[in-house]
Each structure stands twice: as C-alpha cells, then as structure tokens.
Amino acid sequence: MYCNYCGKVIQDDANLCAYCGRRVGAVMARKRLIRPRVGRKIAGVALGMSEYFDLDITVMRLVWLLVAIFTGVGFIAYLIAWIVMPEEPEPLPAPSHPAGVTASQ
Ligand SMILES: [Zn+2]
Hints:
Layout: H1 25-29, H2 45-52, H3 57-71, H4 73-84, H5 98-102
Bound molecules: zinc ion.
C-alpha cells in the first residue's frame, strides 16, 4: 500500500510509514466509530468522532460544547454516544516505533 502522507510504497501490514514516520495502518484500518483510549478528555466520544469524520478534535469539542450549552441536547447525545460507541480495544504490547518515542525526550 501507499503512505497517505508522503506517497511512498510501504509494507501492507505496516502501522507506521518507514519514510516519514506517520501512523498509517491504524488510521486506514480504523473506520469504525470507537472511543480511543489515548488523548480523550472525558469518554473519548468527541475524539472518536473527530477521527471517524476526519475533523479537527478542537472543532469537534467546540461543536459538542456549543450544542450542549445552547440546546441541552448535547449532554444527552454525549451520554448516548458514550454508551453506544465501543471502546478502542487494548493496544498490542509489541513496540512499534521506539525511535519516535525517544526523539521527544
Ligand atoms: Zn510516509
């Protein structure tokens, strides 16, 4: 398959692009509406929707907040989404890209 970001050919089962280091496999495989475990603020509903619809997480949180404040429906909708949306499965213990982790330290 091809990397979405740099366009180079990478392994079909790769999670990270070997050329630019971007996460590719997980994003392509994840076209389900789920609540991610990493990066969530409350229950991961807004984060999961932003990933599913390919929207910015800040925009998605603002939309949720505005709908909740001005209509009151947002609270109920969030609770329903919390219940309905499945949680992201536990990540595999295999280390994926140690170079990217140590680079920020
Ligand atoms: Zn790439």
